[in-house]
Amino acid sequence: MNTQKTLSAEARRKATLSAVLAVICVIYVLPVVAVVINSFKLNTFVKTDTFALPTGNMWAGFENFIKGMTFGNYPFAKSVLYSVVITLLSTALILLCTSMAAWYIARVNSLFCKALYFLCVFSMVVPFQMVMFTLSKTANSVRLLGFWGPHLNTPWTIPVIYLGFGAGLAIFMFVGFVKSIPLEIEEAAAIDGCGPLRTYFSVVVPMLKPTMVSVGILEIMWVWNDFLLPYLVLDKNLYRPIHIQYLKGSYGTVDLGATMALILLSIIPVIVFYLTCQKHIIKGVAAGAVKG
Amino acid sequence: MRPYKNSRGADILKTKKISNSNSIRRATRRWGLFFLGPVTAAFIIGFVWPFLQGIWLSLCRFKTISNAKFIGLDNYAKAFSDVGFRHAFWYTALFAVVSLVLINVLAFAVAYALTQGIRGSNLYRTVFFMPNLIGGIVLGYIWSMIFDGILSWWSTSILLESKYGFWGLIILMCWQQIGYMMIIYIAGLQNVPGEMLEAARIDGATRWQTLFKVTIPNVMPSITICMFLSLTNGFKLFDQNLALTGGQPFIIQPGGATIKTTEMLALNIFNTFNASGGSSQGVAQAKAVVFFVLVAGLGLLQLGYTRKKEVQQ
Question: Among residues of chain B, what percentage have pLDDT more than 70?
Answer without folding.
Answer: 89
